[in-house]
Amino acid sequence: MINAKNIYLSYDENKYVIKKGNFSIKEKEFIFIGGTSGSGKSTLLKSFYGEIPLKHGELRIAGQNVFGIKGKSLRSLRKDIGIIFQDYKLIKEWTIEENIMIPLKINGYSNDISREQATKLLNHVKLSHRLGYYPNELSGGEQQRVAVARALAHNPKIIIADEPTGNLDDYSAEVVWNLLKGANEQLGITVVVVTHRVPKNFGIRFRQLSIEDGIIYEVS
Amino acid sequence: MKFLKNTFAFVVPLTAMLLSFIIYLFSSNILENYKIKIANDYSIVVVTNTPLIKEDVTELAGIQVEKIITLQKNAIIDNIKSNLSSSSIDLLKKKLPHFYKINLETFPTTSQLETIKNKLYSNKNVRKVEIFSKNHNSVYLLMLLLSQISFILFSIITIFAIIMISKQIRIWFYEHHEKITILKLHGASILYSSSTILKYAIISSFISFFIVSGIFIYLVDNIGVLLPNDLENIVQVTLALNDSLTKIFLLSFGISILTIIGVLLKYKIKYD
Q1: Contacts of B231 (CB under 8 A, 6+ apart)
Q2: Which residues of chain A lie closer than 8 angstroms to B187, CB-CB?
Q3: Residue A94 structural domain
Q4: Which residue of A lies nearest to B189 if distances are taken between CA atoms?
Q5: What is the tally of structural domains in chain B?
Q6: Chain B residues with CB inside 8 Å of A71's CB?
């Protein structure tokens, strides 16, 4: 599903954040990417959806080469991915239902089908009682559940999550982990999570990568 | 409230531009009508030795020649034929020069008439050129000046309006940057991501169009508001409502859409 061969990532020419990155992630795998702050975890994740361009090497996501990707190909790649951010990135002036509808409408689903699917997903993340609410009217944990629902909405091949529980209390974090585990186990979606703290007793098979000084290691 | 504030900043320059456009429409229409009104208040009569080849005289002093009318000699002969024998009349018919009246497509100014006269005299076959005209020159030139000033004013206001509209669109892009970024991260095109901005621009264009159309229709029906009563005998407004409204509509949306495309391309180059 994700194959990296000798990849280099950097914000400027002089210093590489990721050096000689080689790894492979299979379909339906659950992957944690760990490492200290500033080690390049988020940078690596951003390169998966074309936010940070590759300097060298080859990176294939769901069959698409990410090197130099832009325009239509980039939009097509992003349609295959569900993204969850630490700061949720919900559109404040839209209701949570409308936020969940975003990937569906971008993928060409009608308004009615998108709304129906959004309602189902709100039920799935146990927020059906918040239908019609705006993101600012929800707690951080609830907002992240909306973000998870949005990432699941269009049945993506991969879910990429950048510190999804970084701003959450333990209870909310557990709810989010359960939703991600469900997406992986029940829907067979490949999940890649960047976190500096892998949860204990996770309950499903997972693999862990770590980044130290720009080098990617296999942990277990 | 925010929506109103946002659209107001777009509507004001666009409305100012459209208002200057209708002023230009009025002034050019008044000028055209005046030209038609005075079009026959001049006469150019040319006397030539040999028949005038009409195809050689298509333009005079930058004005297209509408038609060249051959004046019949019979009227001259009829006046004097009582004193002449039939052989003398035949000889006279052969010896008399050719007379023509030239009609131009637009009214010539005094200086243009002088140029026409010289141009015609440059033809060796032309024996005499006589020009008779009423002096509309000062009023005509004043109207021409008014029309040109209104066009210059319209052009200047259009440039400023485009600058202000593009500034407002850039503000909208700045305000919606986060939303656009989120939508793009989910695979949306720049056009889809900025659909809210497009909606603002279209609504603003409609508002401007309706305001200016209302003012325009009112002015067409009540031209006295724009012109003093004394001028009503001299000038006339005959603007076709549908044609003019179509022009205002196309200008309103054309300018808005072109400005949006410009800002959109700039945004795409910067962030894509």
Answers
A1: none
A2: 75-79, 103, 106-107
A3: 29-45+74-218
A4: A75
A5: 2
A6: 272
User: What's the CATH number where A91 sits?
Assistant: 3.40.50.300
Q: What is the dihedral of CA A22, A24, A30, A36, to 10 degrees?
A: 0
How many other C-beta atoms lie within 10 A of the C-beta of residue B118?
11
Task: Supply φ then ψ for residue B251, to 5 degrees.
Answer: -65, -45
| Interface check A157 vs B, CB under 8 A | no
- All residues of chain A having their beta carbon less than 8 Å from the beta carbon of residue B186 are 78-79, 83, 102-103, 106
Question: In this complex, which of B179, B187, B189 lies closest to A91 when CB atoms are compared?
Answer: B179
Question: What is the domain extent for residue B170?
Answer: 2-36+138-271
Listed residue (A36, A55, A49, A113) closest to A77, CA to CA: A49
**Over 90: is that where the pLDDT of B100 sits?**
no
Tokens of residue B92, six digits:
């006279």
CA of A74 vs chain B CAs: smallest distance (Å): 7
- DSSP code string of B84-121: S-HHHHHHHHHHS-EEEEEEESSPPPHHHHHHHHHHHH
| Phi, psi values for residue B96, rounded to 5° | -60, 140
**Structure tokens that stand for A163 in this block:** 């510190």
Residues B161 and B98 in one domain: no
Per-residue pLDDT 10s for chain A (220 aa) are 888 888 888 887 778 888 888 888 998 999 999 888 888 888 888 988 888 888 888 889 888 888 878 888 888 889 889 999 989 999 999 999 999 999 999 999 999 999 999 999 999 888 888 889 999 999 988 999 999 999 999 989 999 999 888 888 888 888 889 889 988 998 899 999 998 888 888 888 889 999 888 888 888 6
Contacts of B163 (CB under 8 A, 6+ apart): none
* Residue A136 sits at the chain B interface (C-beta within 8 Å): no
Per DSSP (E only), the strands in chain B are: 42-48, 59-60, 63-71, 98-104, 126-133
A70, A76, A102 ranked by CB distance to B183: nearest: A102
